[in-house]
Specification:
By secondary structure, this protein is mainly alpha-helical. It has helices spanning about 10, 15-30, 45-55, 60-65, 70-100, 110. The chain has 2 domains: about 10-70, no CATH class; about 70-113.
Length: about 110
């Protein structure tokens, strides 16, 4: 009869291993999408690829957004204004769709005749 837990070898120092895995993952993810490999010394091609990757990520927009601290209340107001603007645009699109003129062959008279 053993009073010890049989899983001691499995559980030994498991937190340290998990922390190491998390650290390794963060290190790998740190440069994900921002690193381009240079093949055959073609630096100009690599720079072009990097610019495309950064443009797709909206990297410049993110940098300019984080350049200065934005108070939480200001951020909330900005997001609210963006939402109102988006909803107004959708509403305008709905109205313009309703006003579209139907072709003559789709009028009710031509359908019933």
């Amino acid at each position: 009869m053993s009073w010890k837990n049989n899983n001691t070898k499995k559980d030994f120092n498991h937190k340290a291993r998990q922390d190491k895995k998390a650290r390794d993952y963060k290190e790998k993810d740190k440069f994900a999408g921002r690193a381009i490999e240079v093949y055959n010394g073609d630096v100009n091609g690599a720079i072009r690829k990097l610019k495309k990757v950064l443009e797709r990520m909206d990297f410049q927009k993110e940098l300019s957004k984080r350049e200065f601290y934005e108070k939480p209340s200001a951020a909330k107001k900005r997001k609210k204004d963006q939402e109102e603007k988006r909803l107004a645009l959708l509403e305008r699109k709905k109205i313009t769709r309703k006003k579209e003129v139907k072709p003559k062959w789709l009028t009710e008279k031509s359908i019933h005749s």
